[in-house]
């Protein structure tokens, strides 16, 4: 019996967690311990669930004897140096890049094994089906026939494979499909030495857009109706699976992507982190553009459902007549245009999280059905009678006052309280403007990558300009303004001029523009005083601050204001 490789992992954030999830399923690998100074790191929680030893100090890791491999997933130089200094000589250190390469190799090996297994399953299926199957390459060379082909036609496989279909059956469905590059349906013919009348269907084999050959499937005419019914059933299964695959997604952001240090913002972030660990329904409130969807993604990514679907529904973007079908799906024939059964968002989100954006725009009828899902975790598709049970965590978001809407009869009060188990209120950007420099720095880095530029930052005046604006569109508006400025800037530094035509900034900005021009000192003094009064206000306290900023006494300021009229 082969000895297991004893592994320790350092750094259990998103990268370390991914490595952990891959290695824990490999038979010959034993994960002895994982280490991260953050007890709440994603991978630390996974390890605790698996009863794997979790450590918060490297010193504790070095106490574990006979470690074969230490995977360093933090990417930090000092951590790597410490590991290399104190590890046992026989222990190998693999950095995150090497671990990722190892993971890719494992994944490729697993894919190859899956392909081999699939081929074996396919051979078994083709050999057992009652329909006759024949495959030819693009030049007509016959590559494969299944046992049913020989049974129906009385032609042994050895006498068929290797011949050319254009010679042995030039008028058959397979030859016709190869010539026309099109499918051939319901082609009737008499085949083989048995003189059996069959109905054949032939189709091109297309790989990555290129036709490589064709396949024909046929059977005696007496079995054709059974074959068609089986084919229809198979197509329904394939369509349902394709629908599920096309619509299922996962979260795109984590809490590491969320920036903000203002106490009110940090309070919201702390509540979101705590709520993520539960299965409670969450209602995210805040003005448009405050980052409600970003928080929803991060909550899912930090929950125990992180490896399950994350389905988003924008209640404001879907027509009201289609909203119920989008949520709960519909049965074939439920209404005009319902040509096949469709899975709804709730069914697709089973086991994971559904994010209901703009929940305040949902109609009252659908609110009642949603309430039942939250209470009973079950529903029926539109036009269906079968009860479908689901396990879904709901996160809702709105920029409207749902409680006020409930009092006015525009929103179900019982649904409001069911959604409002945990209320997460996001502050407006104007209430935490001190975070603007950090946002700007992050956005510059993002748009440098997007546009291939090398912008380093803003001038002081440009930053002051952004700090003065009230940002009614919040962080989304700031991102839009920064992107448009990055598109137009040609230098490495963005000046306030790049922003002036993008939004309506305060009037003080116009004074700043004038001061850039050469003018009489008396006129400049007047403009400076006007700027100071507009910035600090016309009250006594504001004038005191204005005088201090101008470097003059309050009495002097009053005298100058009197002179200016």
Automatic annotation (TrEMBL):
GO terms of molecular function: ATP binding; NADP binding; oxidoreductase activity; sequence-specific DNA binding
Domain PAS: 118-168
Source organism superkingdom: Bacteria
Sigma-54 factor interaction domain residues: 258-487
SMART domains: AAA (SM00382), PAS (SM00091)
Keywords: ATP-binding, DNA-binding, Nucleotide-binding, Transcription, Transcription regulation
InterPro entries per UniProt: AAA+_ATPase (IPR003593), AAA_lid_NorR (IPR058031), Asp/hSer_DH_NAD-bd (IPR005106), Homeodomain-like_sf (IPR009057), HTH_Fis (IPR002197), NAD(P)-bd_dom_sf (IPR036291), P-loop_NTPase (IPR027417), PAS (IPR000014)
Keyword Transcription regulation: yes
Presence of keyword Transcription: yes
Protein name: Transcriptional regulator containing PAS, AAA-type ATPase, and DNA-binding Fis domains
Highest classification ranks of the organism: Bacteria, Bacillati, Bacillota, Clostridia, Eubacteriales
């Amino acid at each position: 019996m082969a000895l297991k490789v004893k592994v320790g992992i350092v750094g259990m954030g998103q990268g370390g967690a991914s490595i952990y999830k891959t290695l824990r399923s490999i038979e010959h690998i034993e994960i002895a311990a994982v280490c991260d100074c953050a007890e709440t790191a994603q991978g630390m929680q996974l390890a605790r669930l698996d009863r794997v030893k979790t450590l918060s100090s490297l010193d504790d890791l070095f106490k574990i004897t006979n470690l074969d491999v230490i995977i360093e997933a933090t990417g930090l130089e000092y951590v790597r140096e410490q590991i290399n200094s104190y590890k046992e000589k026989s222990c190998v250190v693999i950095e995150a890049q090497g671990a990722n390469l190892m993971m890719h190799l494992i994944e490729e090996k697993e894919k190859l094994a899956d392909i081999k297994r699939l081929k074996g399953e396919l051979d078994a299926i083709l050999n057992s089906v009652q329909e006759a199957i024949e495959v030819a390459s693009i030049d007509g060379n016959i590559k494969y026939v299944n046992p049913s082909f020989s049974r129906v036609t009385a032609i042994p496989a050895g006498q068929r494979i290797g011949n050319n279909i254009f010679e042995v059956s030039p008028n058959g469905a397979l030859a016709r499909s190869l010539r026309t590059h099109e499918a051939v349906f319901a082609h009737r013919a008499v085949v083989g030495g048995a003189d059996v009348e069959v109905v054949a269907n032939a189709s091109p084999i297309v790989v990555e857009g290129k036709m490589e050959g064709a396949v024909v499937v046929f059977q005696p005419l007496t079995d054709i109706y059974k074959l068609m019914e089986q084919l229809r059933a198979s197509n329904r299964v394939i369509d349902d699976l394709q629908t599920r695959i096309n619509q299922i997604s996962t979260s795109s952001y984590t809490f590491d992507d969320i920036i903000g240090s203002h106490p009110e913002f940090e309070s919201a972030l702390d509540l979101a982190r705590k709520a993520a660990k539960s299965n409670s329904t969450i209602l995210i409130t805040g003005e448009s553009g405050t980052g409600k969807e970003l928080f929803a993604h991060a909550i899912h990514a930090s929950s125990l459902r992180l490896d399950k679907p994350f389905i988003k529904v924008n209640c404001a973007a879907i027509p009201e007549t289609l909203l119920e079908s989008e949520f709960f799906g519909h049965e074939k024939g439920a209404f005009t245009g319902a040509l096949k059964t469709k899975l709804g968002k709730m069914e697709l989100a089973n086991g994971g999280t559904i994010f209901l954006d703009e929940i305040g725009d949902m109609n009252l009828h659908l609110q009642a059905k949603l309430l039942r899902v939250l209470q009973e975790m079950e529903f029926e598709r539109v036009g269906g009678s079968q009860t479908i049970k689901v396990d879904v965590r709901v996160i809702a978001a709105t920029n409207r006052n749902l409680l006020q809407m409930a009092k006015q009869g525009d929103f179900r009060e019982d649904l409001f309280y069911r959604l409002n188990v945990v209320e997460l209120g996001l502050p407006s950007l104007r209430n935490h403007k001190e975070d603007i420099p950090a946002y700007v720095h992050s956005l510059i880095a993002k748009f440098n990558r997007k546009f291939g530029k090398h912008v380093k930052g803003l001038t002081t005046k440009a930053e002051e300009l952004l700090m003065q604006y009230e940002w009614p569109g919040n962080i989304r508006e700031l991102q839009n303004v920064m992107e448009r400025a990055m598109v137009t800037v040609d230098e490495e530094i963005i000046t306030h001029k790049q922003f002036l035509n993008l939004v309506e900034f305060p009037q003080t900005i116009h004074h700043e523009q004038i001061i850039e021009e050469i003018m009489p000192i008396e006129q400049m003094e007047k403009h400076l005083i006007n700027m100071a009064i507009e910035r600090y206000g016309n009250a006594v306290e504001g004038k005191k601050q204005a005088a201090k900023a101008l470097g003059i006494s309050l009495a002097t300021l009053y005298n100058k204001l009197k002179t200016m009229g």
